[in-house]
Amino acid sequence: MKSIFRPLAALLLGLIFLPGFTPSSKAKGKAEHVVMIVWDGMRPDFITPQYTPTLYGLATNGVFFKHHHAAYISSTEVNGTALATGVHPSRSGIMANTEYWPEMGWLSTFGTEHLDAVRRGDFLSDGRYLNVPTIADILHQAGIPTVIAGTKPVVLLHDRAWNRTSQAAKDSALIFEGKAVPRTLGDSLKKLNDDKAFPTTVTYPNTAQDTWTTKSLIEGLWKKEVPKFSVLWLSEPDKSQHETGVASDTSIAAIDGSDQRLADVIKALDRRKVLAKTDIIVVSDHGFSTINRGPDVADILKRRGFNASKKFENPEPGDVMVVGLGGSVSLYVVERQESVIQRLVDFLQTSDFAGVIFSRLPIEGTFPLETTRIGTANYPPDIVVSLRWSADPNERGAPGLITSADGTKGKGHHASLSRFDMHNTLVASGPDFKRGLASETPSGNIDVVPTILWLLGVRSTNTFDGRILHEALAGSKEPPATATERRIEATRDTGFFRWHQYLRFTEVGKSVYFDEGNGRPTLK
């Protein structure tokens, strides 16, 4: 069966995007345990004594990373993979929550975190659904079991192995959306949750699901001992912000709920007398914005003469698959017809919704897909558009408005190059981190894996796009990291209009963090 991966292309990408870090020696961390807790969709500007007393206390007694970055596309599965692998999408192979690969399904898209897609992808590619190992893979190879628990299925991307061959892998545990690996864990987790199965109904705030997952971790999977590495992925405030918008009463309550789950974890570590020996890392996958308009891009393209749709029935060369991702849109042209791709760019550069246009082909006024490291070796889109955004406040005073594909005004979304989507949360505290530091050095989700491996003293031959966050480590003798800010632009004259787009990014060593990008046409 034909593989969905192109080994040569993957090799070329690895050569083009030189990684930022290869551990050269074992770490000198003091902690015996590392716990990573993900608050899905948490914006850093909501870390206050009022909203998040526990997280605020952790930040003031540890390190608050003031300039932390998501990977683009700023969505859950992309950054869940970045937090599992330490690399950008171009190397991991996951560039969006929803993608279109003909070998996975000729007529429709698929969710990259869904169990069926993960299993099918590994089956078709001989276990290479992700192009690089995850932190769980690396730790298992080093003989270290892991425990990973997530309210959302994205954690499946951290530890997806079906056939577990090593003893460490067999001794590891995974919970994703209430499902357990190994499956025999399911009954015991239900029992400790008052004989209640994982709630299937999402509520706002989604307290019931997050509480079930947290309790399953700290009272079930940690029952015998706290492993060296654990992950807890909470669904909030993402769920509530999507439904009710940023800074709504419901979203604030959701943030409070995640803060309570963090307190539960800290209390559990304290009861087991391992809190002083544990490094705690709280991170979010992306930021968040409020929707100010929600165009139906497929319908707009149809009315402009393109054979565009969100699902194919009987596709022919030149037809366009439109994949709405919230603050971004991916466009796939059947048989990669260059004339259609050019026409699409021509139209987008005069539209009222495009912000930054990335093209697989070199076209004036666009950036290459590889500019933001989204040119995967699998089946990349022909065009990716980050939709337009502004720093204007919503009705509750929270800044950050975006155009969101098929979105509803007043609700929330992300996945754009808005600074409010790209800047997310990172807080770290424990025996290996400095106390009371508000770090000015830019950082990113790609840095989390190499830093954790350093803390755990695990050497890996794998390479990463991220770096060890030495500036935050207590007693580090590494010289201060130097950050270089850059801005690139692309323009094109289109009749009466002039298209202009920009992208801002920061380099620290060989690591690259994307800050923001936007664009629009103006009358000449």
Structure description:
The protein has a 9-stranded mixed sheet with strand order 8-7-6-9-1-10-21-2-22, with helices on both faces. Strands 12-13-14-17-15-16 form a 6-stranded mixed sheet, covered by helices on one side. The N terminus is likely disordered. Helix content is about 25%, strand content about 25%. It is of the alpha/beta class and about 525 residues long. The chain has a domain of about 160 residues. It is built from 15 helices and 26 strands. Strand 18 and strand 19 form a beta hairpin. The radius of gyration is 22 Å and the shape is globular.
Structure, briefly:
By secondary structure, the protein is an alpha/beta fold. Helices cover 26% and strands 25% of the residues. The protein has a domain of 162 residues.
Helix count from the secondary structure assignment: 15
Structural class: alpha/beta
In angstroms, what separates the terminal alpha carbons?
A: 53 Å
* Overall geometry: globular
- The largest beta-sheet arranges its strands as 8-7-6-9-1-10-21-2-22
- Find the count of extended strands (DSSP E, 2+ residues): 26
**Beta-strand percentage?**
15-25%
In terms of quaternary structure, the protein is single chain
